[in-house]
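Writing this down once: the sequence line spells out the residues, with the fold written below as integer tokens. I am pasting one below:
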Amino acid sequence: MQSGPALPLSASAASQLRLQLARQLTASCPPALGAAIALTGSSAHGLADDSSDAEINHWVEHIPPVEARVTYLTEAGVTDLAAEAAPRSDGSEWFQGYRGEIPVEVGWQTFGGLEQSMRPLLTGETSERGALRLGELLTSAVILRGDGRLLRWRERLIRFPDPLRDRLITELRAPLTVETAWAAVERLARRDERLTVAGSLALSLKTAVRLCFAINRRWEAGDKWLLALAADLPVMPPNWRARLDDSLSAPPVQAVQLARAWCDDALALIGGHYARLTE
């Protein structure tokens, strides 16, 4: 039985199809192989297209033997299975494969591993992007099989933790305010070093967008969907997307000026909206 949020009303047809697939796999999954199961990633956001995989997470007390997981997935119709060579930084283990023509990515994580990854986020001890992505994953997931532990963590993460927000704002603000760095990229722009300038500005703008996520108390999903999810942030620099695109397409000297103005506007949000968002 599904609990938690459904797909967004604007969800793509590809997302709906991947949700249907995930429900079918959940129905055939023995409880021992998945105490809690959720559809995550682009499909959960309603942003999947025909090339997107169906990302399905399983949470368990102990990760089952590889043979048991392979049997379950094979009997559920998943083909071309390939296991990742090593666990990820959060201890999760993943398979890639196909169900029909749809690519699938199926992972297992222990509840203990989930707790170990989540607690430093709640206290602000870490701002590591992999951990941030797990926070976003839990809050956006379409839960297909619930468990009290998973639902409790999800509830705690719905409100973005204050210590983490403060840490992120401090960390992300710092590189955007280094005058010598902006002066250096301006010199490169005058020399028409386009590749170096483009890389530097892209990094600065990405940092500023990430800062906006922290100001808005929203989880970020990593680079892949950063701009797509930023479209839903209530507090952003004026005309932010068009100005960001202009910053990346203008001639080098003008691009530096536009990007600097964009980043300055993002920094200005800290003093205004940030104060109200803390109330």
Observations:
- The first helix runs from residue 13 to 27.
- The longest strand covers residues 102-110.
